[in-house]
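JOB MANIFEST
job_type = single_chain_structure
chain_count = 1
residues = 356
[input]
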Amino acid sequence: MSQPRPAPSTKPFLRALGGEAVWPPPVWLMRQAGRYLPEYRATRADAGGFLDLCYTPDFAVEVTLQPLRRYGFDAAILFSDILVVPHALGQDVAFKQGEGPVLDALKDEADLARLDTGRVLDHMRPVLETVSGLAKAIPETTALIGFAGAPWTVATYMIEGGGSKDFATTKAWAYGRPDLFGRLIDTLVTATGDYLIAQIDAGAEAIQIFDTWAGALPEADFMRWVVEPIGRIVRRIQTERPGIPVIGFPRGAGILYPTFVRETGVTGVSLDTSVPCAWAAEAVQPLAVTQGNLDPIHLVSGGDAQDVATDHILNTLCGTRPHIFNLGHGIVPQTPPENVARLMERIRGAARPDAV
């Protein structure tokens, strides 16, 4: 049964997603809660392992709030990880120091049959408790973003058993065993949709779907394994929770960004660092609200180069059309916190391009 649409918001982030050219542009940063902050490192040490941090609401709420206290971002994003979904489906997932995520890789139909969508929401109770806690704790002008990984990207980790340079095993499934791979994608569409609807019901005001490895596929397979599954999730949210905006992040999609927007029906789209701002202004902004796309390494080097890159985004994508300032990927651990403060000062103090 469909739900009533939420009332129009006064929050800058949600106003922008509603189509308003807010000035100064709302800003948040992917991985804004993370290892570059000393307070995060202290909390993570108290929590123990990474999954312990994700599944302990008090810790997860605290690390989500930390960058808001420092920088006054316009949105908070739930602190969690895209791999909680395969973990909830019953796959073994661990995060090893210096190695990253390690999963018990899917090898055959029997492994696939053991995945259980019926256990997802019960497994996610602590995460949903975090969402509820954040909805009460964030400032009144700050929006709360829920998120999940896209089916294609999550599937790569489930089949490869972790990160990959070429996704050869996953592509072998997708190209050579499309029926079997399609069953995995269907499972992830269902589980991810259930999870995101539950996040909305717990207090999330917008959703972002991360397809980090979307650019690894050629066009026909991009349409089949990136666009089609995300479109199904977006349409479900639009039907069951109308008015909740969804941002897609098809990293590496290149010239397929406009196709992605049109075919999935997302409200907004996050641009990776490789996307030229002038091209995005012409080809993407007429179709959806844009978000992005400062190179995270500019926040490492800082200085005048960071200012110039920031101004280019402000002058090209902001002012006359809605844009949410963000990075082209997540903050990296070696980022000096003072460079993030410099970025915020630059954005907040900039003159509106159309007023110059």
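[summary]
The beta strands are 75-77, 93-96, 100-103, 143-149, 206-211, 246-250, 268-270, 289-294, 323-327.
The mean pLDDT is 96.
exit_status = 0
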